[in-house]
Automatic annotation (TrEMBL):
<keyword id="KW-0489">Methyltransferase</keyword>
<dbReference type="GO" id="GO:0032502">
    <property type="term" value="P:developmental process"/>
</dbReference>
<keyword id="KW-0531">Neurotransmitter degradation</keyword>
<dbReference type="GO" id="GO:0032259">
    <property type="term" value="P:methylation"/>
</dbReference>
<comment type="similarity">
    <text>Belongs to the class I-like SAM-binding methyltransferase superfamily. Cation-dependent O-methyltransferase family.</text>
</comment>
<dbReference type="GO" id="GO:0042417">
    <property type="term" value="P:dopamine metabolic process"/>
</dbReference>
<protein>
    <recommendedName>
        <fullName>catechol O-methyltransferase</fullName>
        <ecNumber>2.1.1.6</ecNumber>
    </recommendedName>
</protein>
<keyword id="KW-0808">Transferase</keyword>
<keyword id="KW-0949">S-adenosyl-L-methionine</keyword>
<keyword id="KW-0128">Catecholamine metabolism</keyword>
<dbReference type="InterPro" id="IPR029063">
    <property type="entry name" value="SAM-dependent_MTases_sf"/>
</dbReference>
<dbReference type="InterPro" id="IPR002935">
    <property type="entry name" value="SAM_O-MeTrfase"/>
</dbReference>
<dbReference type="GO" id="GO:0042424">
    <property type="term" value="P:catecholamine catabolic process"/>
</dbReference>
<dbReference type="GO" id="GO:0016206">
    <property type="term" value="F:catechol O-methyltransferase activity"/>
</dbReference>
<dbReference type="Pfam" id="PF01596">
    <property type="entry name" value="Methyltransf_3"/>
</dbReference>
Length: 267
């Protein structure tokens, strides 16, 4: 991956020298965008690899609490994509209250939230986690196994959320008791996909009609990106109520059968 950050700038220099006039500015702008994307990709993968390596080597294998504590220890001194213990406690509170049997996680990152969710599910509970990046999915799955969970308790799908959502029925229908849909959905991927994915989950009837909590992670650097979905929720005033509590999570409680949807905004 380091070769990308070294070789591509040399290529761009050649291109800019060859191209002149008005085209030069356009090529330069496109190049800078491509380089920014490449660097984000490299840095993101380095973060995932280094996080995984630290947790894998420092935690006690088979001990859930040790895995989570090691994640938190790493985050104290290194950049991390993990939600952290404060937001994690909010998540724990929701899981204990909702007591879900089927959970959908969009955005796996390093596996921290997956482990946090799995440890609170009932014995027959199941987590389906969707992660776009193959490396993140692979390393996150290994961390889940290191924490002591079995493949029968979770499923990792490597694809975009838009591609994954239409396929999720196949993971629910074999179990007639839970064929209604998911009791809990956690969104921590691309915030621009929050609203489209919520609409897709409703359209595919994947949200349990008798009650489903949808959690939207609101990271400080992208809190404004939640505006679109919150505006959508506010337009459904007959079905939603919003209250502010924290600056980390937005909780939407969905209940189709009664015709009421309660939205607890925790940002």
């Amino acid at each position: 991956m380091w070769l990308i950050a070294v070789s591509v700038p040399l290529l761009s220099a050649v291109i800019i020298i060859v191209v002149s006039g008005r085209c030069r500015d356009k090529v330069s702008m496109l190049w800078h965008r491509a380089l920014a994307w490449a660097l984000r990709l490299v840095r993101g993968r380095v973060c995932v690899r280094s996080t995984h390596a630290f947790v894998f080597s420092e935690c006690t294998h088979g001990k859930v609490d040790s895995v989570l504590e090691t994640f938190d220890l790493y985050a104290e001194t290194h950049p991390s994509l993990c939600i952290g213990p404060e937001t994690g406690e909010v998540l724990d509170e929701v899981v204990r209250r909702v007591r879900p049997s089927r959970v959908l996680e969009l955005g796996m990152h390093c596996g921290y939230t997956s482990v946090r969710l799995l440890r609170l599910l009932p014995p027959a509970g199941r987590l389906i986690t969707v992660e776009l990046d193959p490396l993140t999915a692979e390393l996150g799955e290994e961390i889940i196994l290191v924490a002591g969970f079995k493949h029968s308790q979770f499923q990792v799908l490597t694809s975009s959320s838009a591609e994954a959502i239409p396929t999720l029925h196949s993971f629910l229908e074999p179990d007639q008791k839970t064929s209604e849909g998911f009791n809990l959905v956690l969104m921590d991927h691309d915030p621009q996909q929050y609203l489209p994915d919520l609409l897709a989950l409703e359209r595919e009837e994947l949200l349990c009609p008798s009650g489903c909590s949808i959690l939207l992670i609101s990271r400080k650097t992208r809190a404004e990106d939640l505006r679109e979905i919150l505006d959508h929720v506010r337009l459904r005033a007959d079905r939603c109520s919003i209250k502010t509590e924290l600056r980390s999570v937005v909780e939407i409680s969905y209940q189709k059968e009664s015709g009421n949807v309660e939205c607890d905004n925790k940002i």
